[in-house]
Amino acid sequence: MLETFERAARQAGFTLDDAQRAAATRLSRLGTELAGRRRLFAGPPPRGLYVWGPVGRGKSWLTETFYEALPLPRKHRVHFHAFFREFHTVYARHRRERNACDLAVAELLGDCRLLFFDEFHVHDPGDAMMMGRVLTSLFERRITLVATSNYPPAGLLPNPVHHHMFEPTIKLLEASLDVVEVAGPRDYRGERPAQGARSRFETGRYLGPADPRQLRAAGLEPPTADERRQLDVGGRTLTARAVRGSLVWFDFHELCAERTSTIDFLTLADRYDTWVLAGLPRLSSTDRDAAQRFANLVDVLHDRDARLHLVADAPLAEALHGDALPLDIARTASRLRLLTPA
Q1: Are 340 and 204 in contact (CB under 8 A)?
Q2: How far is the C-alpha of 207 from the C-alpha of 313, rounded, in Å?
Q3: Is the pLDDT of residue 27 over 90?
Q4: Which CATH code, of 3.10.50, 3.40.50, 3.30.429, 3.30.300, is assigned to 201-341?
Q5: CATH number of 2-181
Q6: How many whole angstroms separate alpha carbon 36 and alpha carbon 33?
Q7: In angstroms, rounded to a whole number, what is the distance separating the alpha carbons of residues 180 and 177?
Q8: Backbone torsions φ then ψ of 139, nearest 5 degrees
Q9: Mind listing the pLDDT tens digit for each residue in 298-326?
Q10: How far is CA 11 from CA 16, 56, 141, in A?
């Protein structure tokens, strides 16, 4: 399988660096182990991997290449936010049962043998406690886990007030998975492709303050007052400045400064594949909750490969600079650098 990684890298226009090659070698070995177990139908499950490192070093690319090349029918890829939306919905149906978590995992994953958990991160104490139970259930079901993260296991749930709550789960991760660091010197995501865009997300624009002429030059007609729409999202109402087919237009303060959740963003991403978010301020000037919601929104839209047009009050480097910003702001910045600047 190592040849698969090398061929995919050449097609993408680069050569594997040392850190990527080491991770690819370990992933290739896991692929061989999974294929062998598929034939034998016996023995313990292969030991999974926890692949972590700074943004833009190729973690997701490596694991997605592995996942796509692996001829294993009982495999499942899930993003952190999407998993918890599904999990909480299913868990609610079983919450009166003593083994509600096990029942929810069984319903979601069935006879899955390989789970690819992309963008593994834990900042919320409630999610942290539930994640420990979910991981225990996964390993008891003999599922091989591959996860990517910007944090080493010991860096998860970094808030010192709550970190001790997650320490048993950190020990479980370290005991159950091989930890592989991908931290080469090159930020691949920060290097734009020579020709065209590689994804729908990258076809979005990063625009300056809402000058109608600039918006129209980008193919965006400013919304009128009578285009405002009230959208029902999970039983609550959110205000959009416009809805035009598969395009939805929001104001930052009406979407991110309200008590919206990642589940709301996932629900909206099911309906709309093109987004305009206007009025992005310097995040240092807004409260931390609003900034975190914005970071979560970018995560969701990037994972769904939705087109995002941002209309901002300042250049990207200034908009995402300051104190008390989200812990994952480096990942947010890395993704937004993929957008075409005005």
Answers
A1: yes
A2: 9
A3: yes
A4: 3.40.50
A5: 3.40.50.300
A6: 5
A7: 9
A8: -70, -35
A9: 999 998 899 999 999 999 989 998 887 88
A10: 12, 18, 37
